[in-house]
Each structure stands twice: as structure tokens, then as C-alpha cells.
Specification:
Helix 3 runs antiparallel to helix 4. By secondary structure, the protein is an alpha+beta fold. It has four helices and four strands. About 45% of the residues lie in helices and about 30% in strands. The protein has a single domain (about 5-135), classed as Hut operon positive regulatory protein HutP (3-Layer(aba) Sandwich). It has a four-stranded antiparallel beta sheet with strand order 1-2-3-4, sandwiched between helices.
């Protein structure tokens, strides 16, 4: 890819959120790193309503731990904002139910995307939900 913009960063974040396991995450991370992307992924599960803040915190912590963002207010806020945007897109399916799945985070220069991919529901009666948020920060 010659140009990496918001669309490409969103695709990478979605791919990270859809990864099957830690091994595939590592492979994807290495592959995307060669293309100039910084990535992270983190699993999450629990009651949606009571977990929104925890999900947002986990996304920010994972992004810092994996070097996707620096520990500066604007970059932490960008990941938190993109995560909240992604969560708002799945809220109507998830409200009052349990969710389980993964958060994928990707960055290329000033583009940051956060994707959430969750199974939503009770017992084995799951629905799936995907949300995506994007922010731009100075690189």
C-alpha cells in the first residue's frame, strides 16, 4: 500500500479485532509493523453497561503498552474517544447483555482506529456486533 489513510487503518484495526488467538495477533502485528502500522489487541468480556469504562481503559492501556500511542493526553484521549465511538455503535445490541470479544487498535502516522468485535447475548444465543471509531492526532 502506497498511502495509508483512515480507511487502511480501519481495516487493520478490524483485522486485529477479528484475530483468533494470541499467536495470530503476533503474526498480524509483525506483518503490519513491516508496513508501518502500530497495532494492539485486547480481549474483553462482561456486562456491557457496567463495563464501558473498563473497556475504554483496557484499550488505552493496551495501546500504550504496545507502543501504539505515547503517554500524552492527546493520544490517550484519541484512543479513548475512538473506543467510545466504536462502543456507541454496538450499544443498542449490547445494552443489558453480556459481551465477549476483542478490541483491535491500529495507527499509521496521525490516523488511529479502534474496532470492537463482540459476541452479544445470553448463553449460546449470541449475536455479533462490530463497531469502529477513528481519530486523528499529530504524529
Amino acid at each position: 500500500m502506497a498511502f495509508q489513510g483512515s480507511r487502511q487503518v480501519a481495516r487493520v484495526a478490524l483485522t486485529m479485532a477479528l484475530s483468533e488467538d494470541r499467536e495470530q495477533e503476533r503474526e498480524l502485528k509483525a506483518c503490519y509493523s513491516r508496513e508501518g502500522f502500530k497495532t494492539a489487541a485486547v480481549d474483553y468480556g462482561g456486562d456491557f453497561v457496567t463495563s464501558v469504562n473498563k473497556i475504554t481503559e483496557r484499550a488505552v492501556v493496551a495501546a500504550k503498552r504496545e507502543g501504539v500511542i505515547r503517554e500524552v493526553h492527546a493520544e490517550e484521549g484519541a484512543v479513548a474517544g475512538a473506543t467510545r465511538e466504536a462502543l456507541s455503535q454496538v450499544m443498542f445490541k449490547a445494552i443489558g447483555l453480556n459481551v465477549g470479544g476483542k478490541i483491535g487498535i491500529a495507527r499509521y502516522h496521525d490516523h488511529i482506529s479502534v474496532a470492537v468485535f463482540f459476541g452479544v447475548g445470553l448463553l449460546h444465543l449470541d449475536e455479533v456486533a462490530v463497531g469502529l471509531g477513528h481519530r486523528a492526532v499529530s504524529s
